[in-house]
Structures are given as C-alpha cells and as structure tokens.
Design brief:
about 110 residues; two-stranded antiparallel ribbon; mainly alpha; DM2 domain-containing protein; SWIB_MDM2_dom_sf; MDM2; SWIB_MDM2_domain; SWIB_domain
Length: about 110
C-alpha cells in the first residue's frame, strides 16, 4: 500500500512543476501599462518638488517619496501617514497629514 501512495504523490507532483515554469515564462514577457508610462506635466506646486519637466506618474511618485524620506516626513509611529510641510500642503489640498494611499490620488489631481 505504501508503494501505491508514493506513486500517487509522484504523479501529482510532476504536473505542478510544469505549471510553475509556464507561469514564470509568461511573467517574463509582461509589459508596463501605457497609462503609467505616459508623461504628465506637474502643476506649479508639484513642480517645486519633482521639477517642471513632464514625467511618467511612476517617476513623480518616486521623486515624491524621495523628498518625503529626505525630509523625514513619514510619521514615526504610523509609517503609512505622511506629515505635510509647507511645500506638500498645497499638493495635499491643505491637509496637515494624509495616508500614502490618499497621496497618490491627490498627486494625480496635480498632473495634466
């Protein structure tokens, strides 16, 4: 009986290995979403932080996070919370602090 159980395990394990390699091969050909790569012009308030050149949304968010970390604007206890300084308040709609999830939607309003 033990031999039958071992044989049953071997037959179920082999197809699973093929599926994972197929997923990896499909994942390698993934292309970035064109909407994220489209260059957008930042507003005047956002341009003070990221620069006036048109940038893709992904680069805008990267530069914004670099600014937040450089100026130590993440809340010490709740890292999801961002405390606004004088440059970030106009971008955040006058709010003193926002969550990182709110930040992306507020930044999108600053891009055209």
């Amino acid at each position: 009986m033990a031999a039958k159980k071992a044989a049953a395990k071997k037959t179920t394990a082999a197809p699973a290995a093929k599926k994972t390699t197929a997923k990896k091969a499909a994942g390698d050909t993934r292309k970035p979403n064109a909407a994220f790569m489209k260059e957008m012009t930042p507003s005047a308030a956002l341009a003070e932080i990221v620069g006036p050149k048109p940038l893709p949304r992904t680069e805008v968010v990267k530069k914004l996070w670099a600014y937040i970390k450089k100026n130590n604007l993440q809340d010490a206890k709740n890292k999801r919370q961002i405390n606004a300084d004088d440059k970030l308040k106009p971008i955040f709609g006058g709010k003193k602090n926002v969550t990182m999830f709110e930040m992306t939607s507020l930044v999108n309003k600053q891009l055209s």
